[in-house]
Amino acid sequence: MRVAITGGGRRLHVQLYYACVQSRALFTAWSLLQLMRRYPGRVPDVELMFDCMDRPAINRTDYGGGGGDGDHGAPPLFRYCTTRDHYDIPFPDWSFWGWPETNIEPWSKEFRDIKEGAKAVKWQDRVATAYWKGNPDVASPLRVALLSCNVTNKWHAEIMRQNWDEEVKSGYHNSKLSSQCTHRYKIYAEGFAWSVSLKYILSCGSMALMIDPQYEDFFSRGLQPEVNFWPVHTDVAAGGMCESIRDAVEWGEAHPAEAEAVGRRGQRLMQELDMDAVYDYMLHLLTEYARLMRFRPVEAPPPPAQEVCEASVLCLAGEKQRRFLEASAASPAVSEPCVMPPDAGE
């Protein structure tokens, strides 16, 4: 979709080119409206292209690779994730404002619930195995391979298939994230691309086992191996994925204080990633991007672009979507946004 913010950061126009998955477009437009509400008059006039699908599209090798004059022609494209091989610009994903299709609440409430669920089970009372629950049927060879690690006595892992159709019928009884902090180790496995599950896994305070992540969202670039997560590798020469999971669990059981500390640091990072930080990232990103623009956005883009406001988004939303949107509404900031550190020249 094409997005234009004009009027001194007070008007939003959106032009859709194709239907996004589920309610992503609706919630992404809402996120921009909430940024404008949080920092009235501070969001710059800006125009950008946003792709709400999963995989990055602007390959570095198509535009000169690692930099220099050859990469000036790369078209800027915003999306929810990127990789080191792509120029796509990472932007907070829709689920920070809620994901009604999976009954996941807006981030501020979901993190609070997960943290409370984590407090209910002390480290020494948690199951001493690595746990993963998700959907392997998303064109992810990694997740399909992970199913073979579900031999608990051999690999110290419990791999559970998530059937979302059944969850919808049962009222999401078995998919509540706050009740899934019962294991000392939790596995993060990418799906078709990156997965929104990373922030929820880290929130449990369990030691997160990340399997060779290829994709990055806007905050995962701040993760440090053996500090706030534990790396798991798929390299056959190094023993393979199941062996790497087993080794991680055995290390954690031999070093329980250190393993618990890794989990707590991951949880602390997610606590620091509150909605204030999310909105500040959005504001700084759009401000820096606007400074690079060589034209001024048209005040009122012609059709088929449509002006979007909170009322129009709520009007388009279904009953459950509307509840999530309203629950994630921002309030005007009472303090200045965080200050960006000096440019390190990178």
TrEMBL record:
Single annotated GO MF: transferase activity
InterPro entries attached to this UniProt entry: CAP10, O-Glucosyltr/Glycosyltrsf_90
Keyword Hydrolase: no
SMART domains found in the cross-reference section: CAP10
Zinc is among the record's keywords: no
Record key words, sorted: Transferase
A Pfam family assignment: Glyco_transf_90
Domain Glycosyl transferase CAP10: 42-296
Family as reported in the entry's similarity comment: Belongs to the glycosyltransferase 90 family.
Protein name: Glycosyl transferase CAP10 domain-containing protein
